[in-house]
Specification:
The chain is α+β, with helices and mostly antiparallel strands. The chain contains three helices and nine strands. The protein folds into two domains: about 50 residues; about 130 residues, no CATH class. It has a nine-stranded antiparallel beta sheet, with helices on both faces. β6 and β7 form a beta hairpin. The protein starts with a helix and ends with a strand.
């Protein structure tokens, strides 16, 4: 009984410490994240037949094919992949939800921007895209969405902006830019 008393006291101490806080919660969260990454990675590998690296971090998922280098990041804090085209402008404070890059240089960037009117965003993006060497070829408003098409020697860029004013008077806009190579 004497030898079991320290062990029992240790369990009681751990139980009391665990009331209201779990010292192992951070460890459990990391384990769950790694299990989730492993499951998603296996599902994608099975579906694609290839090797895919999955990185789940900060509310986002990143998938990278090591063979092709193709990358896609999704989520509330998606990361812009290394090698992303520098001629796609990134608005200060924009929350990235999708960023993808293919081996041929095609790219997609989707962001959410708050507290800025869509008209102001359209002007800012137009100015930045033109400064990056693109020429605007068309502007098409459809319902609440504005589409612009731009071209330069080797690339085509499509920009779509959809904005909405909430009941509290604050603006929220989604901006998607798709860049693709033009066959020469």
């Amino acid at each position: 009984m004497q030898k079991q008393l320290p062990l029992a006291l240790s369990f009681v101490a751990l139980s009391v410490m665990g009331i209201g806080c779990n010292p192992f919660a951070g460890v459990q969260e990391k384990i769950n994240q790694k299990i989730g990454e492993s499951v998603v990675e296996k599902m994608i590998k099975a579906g694609s037949g290839g090797k895919i690296d999955v990185d789940a971090e900060n509310g986002g998922l990143s998938f990278k094919d090591p063979k092709t280098g193709e990358t896609i990041s999704l989520g509330t804090n998606a990361k812009i992949p290394a090698g992303f085209p520098t001629d796609i402008p990134k608005y200060e404070g924009a929350q990235v939800s999708i960023a993808s890059l293919t081996k041929d240089g095609s790219a997609v960037l989707a962001v959410t921007i708050r507290d800025v009117e869509p008209k102001v965003l359209a002007e800012w993006y137009d100015e930045q895209i033109r400064a990056n060497g693109f020429e605007r070829k068309s502007e098409t408003p459809v319902a609440e969405t504005l589409f612009h098409e731009y071209r330069k020697s080797d690339a085509k860029l499509i920009m779509a902006i959809l904005g909405e004013k909430a009941k509290d008077g604050r603006w929220a806009a989604n901006v998607q830019i798709t860049r693709s190579k033009i066959a020469q």
